[in-house]
């Protein structure tokens, strides 16, 4: 199934670094290079991306706040015309830092919180006191006037706590609650037997999450998993079907390498040496992601036109071929 290809990605997810003050048990970036682009190189590359037509940049890592030049980088990105956002564990955000982040130009910051229970979150993240710090970060950011979201990786210890997570988000003024499907990348692969859900558990989780998404009017509950199409959840206004990776967004690693997403290790170029629009237009990897071939049970599935086989990253990690059915899929 062929889709319209944009002239450039709308959003770039940019890992500024891979250093981190946490030891999360599902982290995909712990196996990545420690190389980082200099401030000047980053700025030059961001200017090139803006000229290519990219509209938004989301900084991640690692923990991006460990870069001493994060405020300067954000100012440059905002001045270049990007809508600038960031994912953070929140540990380093106090009231003063929140104000500085606002003044630097951040429009939105997502804080990673994986449980409403402090001890569960702290154990998973490998950092005592991190839950208290994360909630405080949400409060500081809201006070500073920055829109906030909570990012929660759904796994075995939190999939049945949807209402508790919503209540936590509501209490701390988060405008969005992102329920991320578990990826089998990096440490996520090493710990998948303990942390990942079965297909039937995923089905039950999404049924409940979809109900809450409809019921909640004050919080945007975001479900980023294409396989929910088989439960009747189809967004008729969506620009693309299936995964957005390589269609609306692109990932850039800390050393400048470009990949379809942070969970697909296929390097398609480097932002320092290669032209973004040329890579975006001519990459054979991106072309294959945009024009997947249904295999296995997907070939006869009535929902394939909407989900396009589910999460390509997960299929690639678990089967070696992103055309294969998503291992999370419960459809027989």
Please characterize this protein's 3D structure.
The protein has 332 residues and is of the alpha/beta class. It contains 13 helices and ten strands. The longest helix is centred in the middle third of the chain and has 17 residues. It starts with 10 loop residues before the first strand and ends in a 13-residue tail after the last helix. The mean pLDDT is 91.
Tell me the number of strands. 10
Structural class computed from helices and strand pairing: alpha/beta
**pLDDT < 50 stretches:** none
Strand order of the largest sheet: 7-6-5-4-3-2-1-8-9-10
Rg is 19 Å
Instruction: Tally the helices.
Output: 13
Overall residue-averaged pLDDT value = 91
Query: How much helix is in the residues?
Result: 25-40%
Please describe the biggest sheet, giving its number of strands, its sense, and whether it closes into a barrel: 10 strands, mixed
Order of helices and strands: EHEHEHEHHEHEHHHEEEEHHHH
> So what's the overall shape?
globular
Spell out the key features of this protein:
about 325 residues, alpha/beta
What topology emerges from the helices and strands here?
Blueprint: E1 11-15, H1 39-52, E2 56-60, H2 70-79, E3 83-88, H3 95-104, E4 106-112, H4 118-125, H5 130-144, E5 147-153, H6 162-171, E6 176-180, H7 187-190, H8 192-195, H9 199-215, E7 220-223, E8 249-252, E9 257-259, E10 269-270, H10 276-282, H11 284-290, H12 304-307, H13 312-319
Parallel strand pairs: 1-2, 1-8, 2-3, 3-4, 4-5, 5-6, 6-7
Antiparallel strand pairs: 8-9, 9-10
Helix pairs in contact: 1-2, 2-3, 3-5
């Amino acid at each position: 199934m062929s889709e319209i290809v944009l002239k450039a990605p709308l959003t770039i997810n940019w890992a500024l670094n891979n250093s981190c003050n946490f030891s999360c048990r599902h982290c995909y970036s712990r196996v990545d290079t420690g190389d980082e682009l200099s401030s000047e190189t980053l700025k030059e590359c961001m200017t090139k991306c803006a000229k290519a037509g990219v509209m938004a940049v989301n900084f991640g890592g690692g923990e991006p706040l460990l870069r001493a030049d994060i405020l300067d980088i954000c100012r440059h990105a905002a001045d270049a015309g990007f809508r600038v956002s960031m994912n953070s564990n929140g540990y380093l955000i106090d009231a003063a830092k929140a104000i500085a982040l606002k003044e630097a130009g951040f429009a939105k910051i997502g804080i990673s919180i994986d449980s409403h229970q402090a001890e569960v979150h702290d154990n998973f993240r490998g950092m005592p006191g991190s839950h208290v710090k994360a909630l405080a970060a949400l409060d500081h950011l809201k006070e500073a006037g920055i829109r906030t979201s909570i990012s929660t990786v759904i796994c075995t210890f939190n999939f049945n706590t949807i209402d508790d997570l919503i209540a936590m988000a509501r209490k701390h003024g988060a405008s969005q609650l992102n329920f991320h499907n578990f990826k089998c990348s990096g440490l996520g692969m090493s710990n998948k037997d303990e942390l990942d859900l079965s297909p039937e558990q995923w089905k039950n989780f999404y049924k409940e999450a979809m109900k809450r998404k409809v019921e909640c009017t004050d919080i945007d509950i975001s479900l980023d998993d294409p396989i929910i199409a088989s439960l009747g959840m189809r967004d008729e206004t969506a620009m693309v079907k299936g995964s957005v990776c390589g269609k609306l967004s692109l990932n850039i690693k800390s050393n400048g390498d470009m990949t379809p997403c942070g969970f697909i290790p296929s390097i398609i170029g480097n932002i320092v040496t290669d032209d973004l629009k040329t890579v975006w237009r001519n990459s054979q990897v991106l072309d294959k992601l945009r024009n997947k071939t249904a295999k296995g049970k997907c070939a006869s599935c009535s929902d394939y036109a909407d989900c396009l086989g589910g999460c390509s990253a997960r299929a690639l990690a678990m089967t070696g071929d992103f055309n294969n059915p998503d291992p999370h899929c419960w459809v027989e």
